[in-house]
Amino acid sequence: xxxxxxxxxxxxxxxxxxxxxxxxxxxxxxxxxxxxxxxxxxxxxxxxxxxxxxxxxxxxxxxxxxxxxxxxxxxxxxxxxxxxxxxxxxxxxxxxxxxxxxxxxxxxxxxxxxxxxxxxxxxxxxxxxxxxxxxxxxxxxxxxxxxxxxxxxxxxxxxxxxxxxxxxxxxxxxxxxxxxxxxxxxxxxxxxxxxxxxxxxxxxxxxxxxxxxxxxxxxxxxxxxxxxxxxxxxxxxxxxxxxxxxxxxxxxxxxxxxxxxxxxxxxxxxxxxxxxxxxxxxxxxxxxxxxxxxxxxxxxxxxxxxxxxxxxxxxxxxxxxxxxxxxxxxxxxxxxxxxxxxxxxxxxxxxxxxxxxxxxxxxxxxxxxxxxxxxxxxxxxxxxxxxxxxxxxxxxxxxxxxxxx
Length: 405
What we know:
alpha/beta; 8-stranded mixed beta sheet; 3-stranded antiparallel beta sheet; 13 helices; 15 strands
């Protein structure tokens, strides 16, 4: 019999966040081991509860949300998204410019399928949230990674990015605040991204799912406020700020010159129609979520749980000899560097699996985020301080056994 093989479209597609490292953790769990998980930005398992109004609304609408909705999303949800962005200063948008999806992940897939033809190029940060690179590759396109400078707080260099633009470049991805580095970009830098996109007629794709998870007075600048003469696609949702990742409720807004992008938007509508609609009950959670006073600011302020966990994890990691880490201004991650002179790592995936086996602590390798070098790890800062202390203590003890002094 001829073997049944995976599609050739998957060649080169990676998603290490849920790859072999997680599979090894699951094997250990089946064997009865307890794993300390610092690998996935999933707030609920760590005791971060959604505002009760959101959960109550989900319960209330279940009887009336049993059928399909408009493929773009229920009108009250799209209207709520419009009001939300009008409050931050975005004008000229309406419900017809909003598409509701099963989280931002589904919308990234739909957008790139509609936009990218084989051989097209999309500029993606390195490191990046790996779904961006994976989905570009899956469409037959090429992800061209622009570097972010760790010595400059993980900020990208606009001149270096512009040098990567070719006649095949269709769009540029801006992840702000960034996953995995936690970098928060200045208003000047965001305006520079918008100007670059307009100069070259690129679609600016702004992944802003962490827009309100900010520390130390950092301010988030919305890219759409600065785009007029090309298309801007802004991605947001409830998974992180409202802590309901399992509801799978996100959106993308088209702003800027939609007439210029009418053919692409027609294709995006076609794909949205083909998947019928997003999870209907979760769509009804959007209006109440966007009109409810959020507790996320308090969680990020001094004394707040997210802020205290970030500070504790950063302090503990940087106390380890040979470990350096930029203090993130946003999101819920740390992206420490293991000095290659002290920790000569050739294969960071193998290193993380060996670390897991030795310590029962699960983290993610830096090259899983399309970083070129094997000298970084990504930590989630969602566990409580005692759990972080235990996990990083185990890691410190393991690193002492492999460190070159």
